[in-house]
Specification:
44% of the residues lie in helices and 15% in strands. The chain is α/β, with parallel strands linked by helices. It folds into 2 domains: 6-52 and 150-318, Rossmann fold (3-Layer(aba) Sandwich), CATH 3.40.50; 54-144, Rossmann fold, CATH 3.40.50.1100.
């Protein structure tokens, strides 16, 4: 099994240059005082399509041949990766088919539809998305671009951490959300080349802790579809590629409560004025809840901002910012 590495992340950075944004990094003096550390937030909610997913999707699709592009691309996604594939395909003039759960956030579903992709809905509680995708393309003519278990996707996702660590080489800990492990494994590879002493933590909801279980047991553990507010990390299991990288490069995987996720979201939206989705704030939730004891300089990747406004407003009302 060939794995991505630091060099493939660097190559991806060149591949996506001019298409993906080099997103901003922001700080909050008040939050730094509250937590007793210096936090650098990498704003991937300001990325193309509002999530880091564009990096990996574009890196992968841009490497397809002209014939592959003409035959179209296929993926399955809870939302952000679907939007990323749809946008990359549109830029590269390929047709895209996106398999999405029927309970996907309205904002993410609308985002895919606006990009002229074909959307196929499935029931995540009774159907398997990989099987649904396979049935749509039984002859395998379309290029399958999975959300995380793909060398070029992982490498592309790692470019966010590559940028962050280039701008802030003093970062001692890097925290990223963990669903299927694409962002986490790519970030760990970037850290291994940029700053091998930097600790890398994946953060997932307690009710969606398949990655933590997998790391503890040394094998991929699959769980039932998790009903977490962090819809972007509702994956059932890590991929073979992401798990292999995580075992080798990641310091640890920690979990956070739903309440901590809501509080962290409220802080980012109300106090810092950043329109983020709950999946994006897992790193901050880990610091708030004490799942990670912070060192002096901490990097957190805010993975996306495609939230339903009604749900976000309701969340903020019920969990006011503690800052």
């Amino acid at each position: 099994m060939t794995l991505p590495d630091y060099q493939s992340v660097c190559q991806a950075a060149h591949q996506i240059a001019g298409y993906a944004y080099r997103t901003a990094v922001i700080e909050s003096p008040a939050l730094n005082r509250y937590l007793g550390t210096n936090i650098y937030f990498k704003c991937e909610h300001m990325q193309v399509i509002g999530a880091f997913k564009f990096r990996g999707a574009f890196n992968a699709i841009s490497k397809l041949s002209e014939q592959q592009l003409q035959q179209g691309v296929l993926t399955y996604s809870s939302g952000n990766h679907g939007q990323a594939v749809a946008m990359a395909a549109k830029i590269l003039q390929a047709n895209a088919t996106i398999v999405m759960p029927n309970n996907a956030p309205k904002a993410k579903l609308a985002g895919v539809n606006k990009l002229d992709a074909k959307v196929v809905l499935y029931d995540p509680f009774t159907e398997n998305r990989e099987q649904v995708a396979a049935e749509l393309d039984p002859d395998g003519n379309m290029a399958l671009i999975p959300p995380y278990n793909h060398i070029d996707v992982i490498s592309g996702q790692g470019t966010s951490a590559l940028e962050l660590l280039t701008d802030y080489p003093n970062i001692e800990q890097l925290l990223t959300p963990c669903g299927g492990g694409g962002l986490l494994s790519g970030s760990a590879l970037a850290a291994s080349g940029m700053n091998p002493h930097c600790e890398v933590y994946g953060v997932e909801p307690k009710i969606a802790d398949d990655a933590k279980q997998s790391l503890a047991k040394g094998e991929i553990i699959s769980i039932d579809y998790p009903d977490t507010i962090a819809d972007g990390v509702r994956t059932l299991a890590l991929g073979k590629l992401t798990f292999a990288v995580i075992k080798k490069e990641v310091t640890d995987i920690v979990t956070v409560s739903e309440d901590a996720i809501k509080t962290a979201t409220s802080i980012l939206v109300s106090h810092m004025k950043q329109l983020v989705e709950p999946s994006a704030v897992l790193g901050l939730a880990a610091l708030l809840e004490g799942s990670v004891r912070p060192k002096s300089h901490v990097g957190i990747i805010l993975s996306g901002g495609n939230a339903d406004m009604e749900s976000l407003i309701s969340l903020i009302k019920s969990h006011p910012s503690v800052i």
